Amino acid sequence: MDFERELANLPRPSGRRLALRVSPAAERAIRSGHPWVFDKAIRQQNVDGSPGDLAVIFDRKNRFLAIGLYAPASPIRVRILAHGQPAQIDADWFMYKVETAAEQRLPLLQTNTTGYRLVHGENDGLPGLVIDRYGETLVLKLYTTAWVPHLRDELRAVTAVLPPKRIVLRLSRFVQRQEADLYGLFDGQLLWGQPVRNDGVLFLENGLYFEADVVHGQKTGFFLDQRNNRARVEKLAAGKRVLNVFAYTGGFSLYAARGGAKEVVSLDLSQPALANAMRNFKLNRAHEAVAAADHELLVGDAFLTMQQLIANKRRFEMVIIDPPAFAKRQDEVERALTAYGRLVRLGLKLLRPGGVLVMASCTSRVTADQFFELVHKTALGVGRPLQEIERTGHALDHPIGFPEGAYLKCLFAVAP
User: Fold this and answer.
1) Which of 8, 34, 139, 316 lies in the 20 to 30 Å Cα band around 198?
2) Interaxial angle between packed helices 333-350 and 368-381, expressed in degrees from 0 to 180 and rounded to the nearest 10
3) 315 three-state secondary structure
4) What's the CATH number of domain 90-201, 3.50.50.60, 3.30.750.80, 3.40.50.720, 3.40.50.2000?
C-alpha cells in the first residue's frame, strides 16, 4: 500500500542519535517504566534535536536508560519507546508493536464489534500515537510531531496487520499549532483510500450500529472507551425512564433502549451530535426494543437543563452522567471536583427513589479514590446514601501502563 503521494513532503527519519542525561528524579521515573521525560528534567544534551529524532538517555554512570522520540517544542520532550535494554527502532520494531497490540484485542472480535482502539499510545508502547478502528476505516491521531518522520513506517505496519478501506489522520490541538513541523499534514486528512461520506462511517459495537464522524468529530469520532459501561447500562435499563446527560451521539441512550428502557432522554449542548444520535437510533430500528423506545432529544447546557427538568418535575429511574474532562491540568482539579459535586446533586434530584445513578469521570488528574469519595460524600450530604452496584475502569482496548494513563472511572449505584 503506497502512501507516498500524501506523505511526499515528510522528512525521513534522521540517522543521528541525541545523547541526553536527566535529573535523578527523572532517572527513577524512567527505571520504573514511565514513558515521559519532561523538558525541565533534561540536564545535558549533546546537540539540538528535531521532531522525531531518536534520543538515547544515559544515567549518571553513563549507562543506557532508555530510547525515545524527541520533540523540541513539547513540554514532554522525549516519549520513551524502550526501557532498560537498547532497541533498534525501525520498521520491524513498529510492526512488532502493532502486531502485539492487535493480538491483545482479538477477544473483541468475538463480540460482534468492529469499533475499538487498536493502539492506545503510551500504554501499548507507542507513546503519543492513537489508532482507532471503525469498521473498514482506520483513524490515526498524533499527540506529538515526533511521529511525523516515522509515519510511513507506522502506516505500513498498521495496514499490514489490519488492511483498511481508508485511513484518516487526526491531530491534537497542540500538534495542529506546530505547522512548520507538519509538512502539509492537516487534521482530518485522508491519507489513503476512499473519501468519507458526509454522514460518516459505520461500525458495530456489541451488535449495535453506530455512525462516527472520523473527520470532524471529537477525539477520533466516537468515545470507544465507554463500550463496557454502555453494555452495563443495557442490563439495568429494562422498564426504566432514562436520562443521559452529556449524551454526545447517544451511545448510552441506544444501549438503554435496546435494554428495554421505555423512555430515553438524550441531553447535550451540540445539535449536530444529537442529530447523529437520532441517526444511530434509526440505524438500529431492527431491534424491537429500540424501535419501541420513546427517544427525546434535548439541546442545552447540562447544568441549566437539568435544573429546568427538576423545575418541571421530570423524574427518571436511571440517570447517566458522563461529562467531559473537567481537569486537563493539576490546577483545574478543585474546579472539576466542584463540577462533579454539582452534577451528582442535580442528578439525584432527578432520580426517583430506588433509581440507578451512573456517574463517570474521564480525567487522570482526578484519581479514582478522589472521584468515588466525592460522589458518595455528595450523595450522603443530600440524604441519598448510595448503595454501590459496581465500580469500573478501563476496557481491554484501553490498557493502563503508567499512572497518568488511568483516567476512566465509573460508578453504578442505587439511591434510596
Assistant:
1) 8
2) 40
3) coil
4) 3.30.750.80
What is the separation of C-alpha 44 from the centre of its chain, rounded to a whole number of angstroms? Answer: 34
Burial 120-145 (b: 16+ CB within 10 A, else e): bbbbbbbbbbbbbbbbbbbbbbbbbb
Amino acid at 199: D
Does residue 393 contact residue 408 with C-beta atoms inside 8 Å?
A: yes
Diameter of the chain by CA atoms? 69
Q: Which fold has domain 223-415?
A: Rossmann fold (3.40.50)
Quote the CA–CA distance of 387 and 195 in Å, as a whole number: 49
With cell 437539568, the residue in question is: 306
Return the CATH number of the domain spanning residue range 17-83: 2.30.130.10
- Rounded CA gap, 26 and 47, in Å? 20
pLDDT tens digit string along 158-190?
A: 999 999 999 999 999 999 999 999 999 999 999
Share of the chain above pLDDT 70, in %: 99
Region of 389 please: left (phi>0), alpha (psi -120 to 50) or beta: alpha
Q: How is the beta sheet containing 42-45 ordered, strand by strand?
A: 36-38, 76-83, 64-70, 54-58, 17-22, 42-45
CA distance 135 to 210: 10
Break the chain into its structural domains and give their ranges: 17-83, 90-201, 223-415
Catalogue the active-site residues: 362
Q: Are 191 and 155 in contact (CB under 8 A)?
A: yes
> At 340, is the pLDDT very low, low, confident or very high (cuts 50, 70, 90)?
very high
Estimate to the nearest angstrom the gap between the alpha carbon of 262 and the chain centroid. 30
Query: Which pLDDT score, from 0 to 100, does residue 8 have?
Result: 84
The region, left, alpha or beta by phi > 0 then psi within -120 to 50, assigned to residue 358 is beta
Candidate from 12-21, 241-250, 260-269, 281-290 with smallest mean pLDDT: 12-21
Nearest CA-CA partner of 220 in 256, 188, 265, 181 = 188
Quote the CA–CA distance of 26 and 28 in Å, as a whole number. Answer: 5
What are the respective helix, strand and coil percentages of the chain, to the nearest 5? 35, 30, 35
How far apart CA 100 and CA 92 sit, in angstroms, is 12
DSSP code string of 129-147 = EEEEEETTEEEEEESSGGG
Angle at the Cα of 175 (from 174 to 180), degrees rounded to 5? 120
* Terminal CA-CA length for the chain: 58
